[in-house]
Every structure is written in C-alpha cells, then in structure tokens.
Amino acid sequence: MKLAVAGKGGVGKTSLTAWIGDYLSRQGRDTWLVDADTALSLGSALGLSPQDVPIPLIQDEALIRERVGSGFINLNPQVADLPERLRVRTGGLDLVVMGSVAGAGGGCACEANALLKALLAHLIVERDQWVVVDLEAGVEHLGRGTVSAVDGLVVVSEPSWRSLSVAARIAGMAAELGLTRQALVLNRAENGSTLPDIPGLPPLTAAIPALTGLTERQLTSPSVLDLPERPALDLACAAILAALADQEPQPSR
Fold first, then answer.
1. Residue spans per domain, the chain
2. CA 169, CA 180: separation in Å to the nearest integer?
3. Rounded CA gap, 245 and 228, in Å?
4. In sequence order, which residues have a C-beta less than 8 Å from that of residue 242 and are 6 or more positions away?
5. Topology (CATH level 3) of domain 2-246
6. Which is higher by pLDDT, 182 or 191?
7. Confidence of residue 106 (pLDDT cuts 50, 70, 90)
8. DSSP states of 230-251 as a string?
9. Please, is 163 exposed, middle or buried when counting C-beta atoms within 10 Å of its C-beta (0-12, 13-18, 19+)?
10. What is this structure's pTM?
11. Cα–Cα–Cα angle for 247, 249, 251, nearest 5°?
C-alpha cells in the first residue's frame, strides 16, 4: 500500500509518518518513507543525526543535471536506480529525502520538479514495498498522475477550526485529483472529540492525545520513536491502516 500524509504545518504529520513507518516495519513490512516536505525533518524524527541524513534530492544539482538536463529538459528521466542509491537505512526502514520545489529557491525549479515527480511516481507506481510519503502542506504540487496513484491519504489536524478547515481543503483538493480514500487523524486531541461542522472533512479515524513522553523528550532529542506511549500509537496506526484498507475508492470527479 502507498500512503500520503498531509496537513497544515505544525500539526504533527511528520511525527505520524514516522509512527506509521515504524509500526509497519515492526510488523515485518518492507517499508520506505519519503520526505517530500520543505522542512526536511523526517530523518531527525526517526532519530538520525544530521550527518546521517542524506542530501535532499532537491539540492543535488549534479544529479538533477545528469538525469533531466537543462534548457531542453527530459520530462521522463531514468530513476529506477535512484531509490537504492539515495536511501538511508534506519531501524528497519528505508528513508529517501527528496524535499519540495516549494523550498528549492530560484534557478532550477522546472528541472528539479521533473526529477522529483518522476522518482515519486516510480516509488508509488512501480515498487512493491509499502511507501509512506510526508507531503508538503497541500497536495496539488505533486501533480494529478502521482497523487491519484497512491492508495490512501492520511490528513492530520489539530482540534482547532483553522487546522480542520485546512484539512478539509486538502481533502477536497485530493478528491478532485481522484484520491478519495482518506482518513482524518486528530493530533493532540482526546477520544470522543466532537468535530465542528466543516464540509469536506474525511472520516475521523483516530485521535492521538498530547504525549507526555514526547513532551519530556523534545528538548533533548528530535526522535519521536520508542516513546512510552508506543502501544497506544500502534493502535492508532492499525486503525488508520484498517480504515483506509476498508474504503472503496470512488471515481474522480
């Protein structure tokens, strides 16, 4: 299964990506995580030191020129060898750090975007492993074909009107791209939280409370793994995966 995780900045989507990947790995699943966010913090959330996190693909100008060129660019570059070349192994997981064109700065956005989209499409469409992608806020930057190819979208929100409004917009954009298999996760919330009447929200699948273990650790370590609350997080991850597996994808509009 191929999943994308989206949400407003600061709601915990990178943490949830790490928790889902760690859960899948401990279930014996061959799992790849993709950091496609400008913040580039998935590696540290997994406990990697800065020197162990590979250079983001978006910053590898030599590789971008090699595969895409400049001027007349190749929109269908060869990328089949890149996942193994770019990955770093950690805790039974494979991490690929891509970054996002939104954080690339000036100069080569078209070339970089072509390579990013081709590599992500390869991971989603042509690989047999589980893939979980930590997205930039929103999903439109990935393009119609790539987004519609994932099996499910996890939308993360805090229990606030602003955050849930962004979640509804993300869900609506994804549905327009054909990605209708969706789950809403409320982070830093309690079970039984009542959602406001905001049209377009995905079905609420899991509520994750504020985690004392994470609060106590976050000033001394960026890792979100191996928390005392891991059994509860495992239950949330299992509920998310089961809910997405049970949904029937709907035709795109």
1. 2-246
2. 13
3. 28
4. none
5. Rossmann fold (3.40.50)
6. 182
7. very low
8. HHHHHHHHHHHHHHHHHSPPPP
9. buried
10. 0.92
11. 150
200-232 per-residue burial string, b: 16 or more CB within 10 A, e: under 16? ebbebbbbbeebeebeebeeeeebbbebebbee
Residues contacting residue 65 through CB under 8 Å, at least 6 positions apart: 111
Q: Tens digit of pLDDT for each residue in 56-98?
A: 998 898 999 899 987 678 778 999 999 999 999 998 999 999 9
| Region for 203 from its dihedrals, namely left if φ exceeds 0, alpha if ψ lies in -120 to 50, beta otherwise | beta
Separation of alpha carbons 42 and 33, rounded Å? 9
Q: Report pLDDT digits (tens) over 141-160.
A: 555 456 668 999 999 999 99
User: What's the rounded Cα separation, in Å, for the pair 144 and 116?
Assistant: 14
Burial class (CB in 10 A: 0-12, 13-18, 19+), 173: middle
Instruction: Report the length, in residues, of the chain.
Output: 253
